Amino acid sequence: MKGKGMWVLFAMVALVFGFQTGTMAEEGVTDTEIHIGQWGPQTGPAAPWGSVARGTDAYFKMINAEGGIHGRKLIHHMFDDAYNPAKTKAGVKELQEGIGMFAWTSGVGTACGLSVKDYLMERKIPWIGPSAGSLHWITPPQKYLFAVYPLYYIEAKALCRYAVKEMGKKRIAIAYQNDDYGKNGLKGAAEELEKYGLELVAQVPVEKADTDMKPHVMKMKKANADVVLLWVTPVHAVRIVGTSHAMKFQPQWMSTSTCSDFPLMYKISKGLWQGVIAATFGELPDSDNALLQKYKKDAYGKFAAKGERWGLFFYAGILFSEPLVEGIKRCGRDLTRERLVKELEGLKDFKGIGGKISYAPLDLAEPYKSRQGQKEVFLVKCLEDGKYEKLTGWMRIE
Amino acid sequence: MMDFIQTVVSGIAVGSSYALMGLAMVLIYKTSEVVNFAQGEMALISCFMTYMVLEYHGFSFYVAFPGGLVFAAFLGFFLEFAVLRRAKEPNVLGMIIITIGLEMILLGVVSWKFGADPKTMPFPISPWDSVALGAVFVSALEMLTFVVALTVMVILFLFLRYSKLGVAMKATQQNQMAARLMGIRTNRILMITWGISSVVGCLAGLLIAPTTMQPYMMWDPMLKGFAAAVMGGMTSLPGSVFGAYIIGIIENLFGGYVSIEFKSVVAFAIIVLVLCIRPSGLFARHYVKKV
């Protein structure tokens, strides 16, 4: 009996100590591993953007193959949410409460991200580089949320600035997806044009379910627009440009970074994408940038699945995760969430394969400065066969 | 005025693909009273197979397209024979649920096999070339779709009314037991109906695919085709075509003059309205089954 009592006591002590060590170590970090979560649509209507998560996966595998970060491997937990916020929320909770993620990276979709933003922030779990250029990430700014993707809003500003100042255009219209993504573009364009005393000559909303674009094109044609901004999905963009071509309406088309994968856009538009100007946030696929070439060789070349294309979305998955990796590196062996936030706040003009990234200590009055990392885009034009022509250098938009 | 005419013409143009899908759904409904929700995805997989033969194996368009239609026919035969016929104690609701299951499986297969990047089908007529009738533009592909839809409707109408097989199909729908007693092999009739319906759906898909192809491309035409069929009374071939054009035109007029945001949903508002006023649809004769 006495022996049994000793065993019970021993078990209780072990349990108590066990719990203590559990709470003392940072969640998702062990001596040899760091667990990072990510969602991305591998099926469903937004599946073309699924390569973002696969890009991150290849990037982490490359880092692990090179020895990891300070002796720890990055364990990437990626799941398919089919671009459905309900699935995003369920998947994030399952991974967070089941395995325990140290941090989350990227994550495609404004609505999907919004469905888990509060959950992650309340639990003080860092989330770096949401894969959507929404204003929601920084309004209000959050201590643990670091945006990388330049806002759709600033892309619209950059394009309007170019159209008015460099091309001398005055009649600018926009076809925008009737959701947060499209409305961000609408807001940026309207604000920028106001500076030059101009207004949008037509604002045409596009619903995701729309397939016939003639009524939309007729509205823009009637407004006699000479530049049309396209803040829609790639398929809608192609339909609008094609329908306009059929209706003999040929303005200068301008588009957001989501439609800047020119080889793809050129192919599905049967060549009509030629001449389109788009904003973009990362080096071009054929750029001779040394870092991009290294990723192409060591991440894409060695770890991408067969049939994967080296396109903008794929390496965007790397671009969005670079600040997280840099932050973890700067933490050294002493990796905690608080330390990671501190290190990220110290990033100044960090340069990966995108524009320069800087953050600052959290300041509610300065959301853009403190939590919007990349503030630069550049403009490109689509040439024959989907080749790129760089029109501008990095444009910084404040 | 020109705007109005353009809007109406555009409505007719977009209505043609709805009409083809509507025809395909009516065919199956006419023989088995099952609403086939897998119709769009059956067309989808046939289109992607055609695309595969064209793009990856280098066959000519004139081989690939008929090949796609033959594949569609066999797919229809197969699904009826291997899946629907195997249902234990079948009732209409159970069958409809099976078609929804098939829809998901076929969509999954296409997404898995071909990936999600948008594609475009090589086609002799560019979807973006147009014919100008004065100041009104119609794309050449839309004109072709219009002609195909009307031709298919006339052929099916004549087939069901005057051919032996067509009459057997009707008999199967009205009373399967009696039809069987009259010597009609009803199982075979159902299988053939699925085959024909699949071919008609595939035609719609092949005429949509030159614009853009992606796993979700048939969802909207299928829903609108279904809406058109319901409006026409579910059993009337001309009714479903008429319904499709009405939906196309109203959608466009609504988008042009009232609200572009609600353009896509207006079709369903019309259906509710039609069903309130004429519950059996605009064209169907009210048919009451005697118990």
Describe the structure.
The complex is a heterodimer of chains A (398) and B (291). Helices cover 43% and strands 16% of the residues of chain A. Chain A has helices spanning 2-24, 51-65, 85-98, 110-122, 152-166, 180-195, 214-222, 234-246, 262-268, 290-303, 312-319, 322-331, 337-345, 367-371; strands at 33-40, 73-80, 103-105, 127-128, 145-146, 172-177, 202-206, 227-231, 252-255, 277-280, 350-351, 356-357, 376-382, 388-390, 395-396. In chain A, strands 6, 7, 8, 9, 10, 13, 14 and 15 form an eight-stranded mixed β-sheet that branches. A five-stranded parallel β-sheet of chain A has the order 2-1-3-4-5, sandwiched between helices. In chain A, strands 11-12 form a two-stranded antiparallel sheet. Chain A is elongated and about 90 Å long. Chain B is built from eleven helices and two strands. Chain B has helices at residues 2-32, 39-55, 61-82, 92-114, 140-162, 164-174, 176-181, 186-208, 219-232, 237-257, 266-277; strands spanning 130-133, 136-139. At the A-B interface, helix 7, helix 8 and helix 9 of A face helix 1 and helix 10 of B.
